[in-house]
């Protein structure tokens, strides 16, 4: 019976080949999501929807969603590359964000459009959000000489260019908002309006016009009535100040003395004076 001889060199080569194969299998390629900001997310793309993609990081089972408007391209493990947004031309998010990152944020503050909370469906809240935002900016400029307050048009323009609508503002984290707007501080404000009901009041008056003839007086009496209907509101203003790290460094709530829709001005002035850079700040 013949014996089969295998040289040590052949055995060593086979062992090396098998080990390399196992390592190659273990190190499977990942999908890479390249963001417009330059960040790269490594893991597995689970699904691609109209406006978002579903994604799982390597070694994790928790699912995440990324907006397609924030993505440059997807580099699949197969080697295929799918372009979502051309970073050189469309980049709706990266341009403003890059400018914000390169800006000097020291002692700069931005006020976001106010959130309106009300039980009165007849109110035009979008216009009011901008009005109160502008009022808050104006007050901060008067009461806080040590900080530079960003113009509300600039704030709203950056939000719009990043496809952030009014209803999405509250979903922004303070850290994200400060980074996006290029400021050290950001103010989140809420105006709470409660319709307490209506009240009707009226007044009446009468006049008499007469003539005297043959010692007799004749005349006519005229009367008029007026009624007024007013709506009573209970309002409350809340301002929260965050720094660029997302820390809540000041918050205050104030109920205006007058129950009218535009009574927020006095409340904002009261709170602004007590902010860390206000004239009545706690030392």
TrEMBL record:
Residues 199-209 have a biased composition (Low complexity). Residues 1-26 form the signal peptide. Keywords: Signal. Residues 211-220 have a biased composition (Basic and acidic residues). The keyword Membrane does not apply. Residues 199-227 are annotated as: Disordered. This is Curli production assembly/transport component CsgG.
């Amino acid at each position: 019976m013949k014996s089969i001889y295998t040289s040590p060199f052949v055995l060593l080569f086979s062992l090396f080949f098998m080990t390399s194969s196992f390592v190659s299998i273990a190190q499977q390629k990942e999908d890479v999501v390249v963001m417009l900001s330059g960040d790269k997310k490594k893991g597995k793309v689970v699904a691609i929807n109209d406006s978002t993609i579903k994604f799982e990081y390597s070694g994790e089972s928790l699912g995440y969603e990324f907006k397609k408007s924030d993505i440059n391209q997807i580099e699949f493990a197969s080697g295929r590359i799918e372009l979502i947004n051309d970073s050189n031309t469309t980049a709706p998010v990266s341009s403003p964000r890059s400018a914000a990152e390169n800006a000097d944020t020291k002692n700069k503050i931005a006020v976001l459009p106010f959130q309106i909370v009300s039980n009165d469906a007849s109110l035009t809240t979008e216009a009011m959000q901008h009005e109160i935002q502008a009022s808050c900016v104006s007050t901060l400029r008067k009461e806080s000489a040590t900080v530079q307050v960003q113009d509300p048009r600039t704030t709203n323009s950056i939000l719009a260019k990043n496809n952030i609508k009014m209803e999405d503002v509250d979903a922004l984290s303070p850290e994200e908002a400060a980074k996006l707007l290029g400021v050290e501080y950001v103010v989140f404000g809420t105006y709470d309006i409660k319709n307490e009901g209506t009240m009707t009041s009226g007044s009446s008056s009468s006049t008499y016009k007469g003539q005297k003839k043959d010692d007799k007086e004749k005349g006519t009496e005229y009367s008029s009535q007026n009624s007024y209907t007013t709506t009573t509101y209970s309002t409350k203003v809340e301002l929260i100040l965050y720094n660029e790290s997302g820390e809540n460094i000041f918050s205050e709530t104030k109920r205006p003395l007058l129950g009218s829709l535009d009574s927020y001005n006095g409340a904002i002035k009261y709170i602004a004076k007590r902010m860390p850079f206000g004239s009545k700040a706690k030392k």
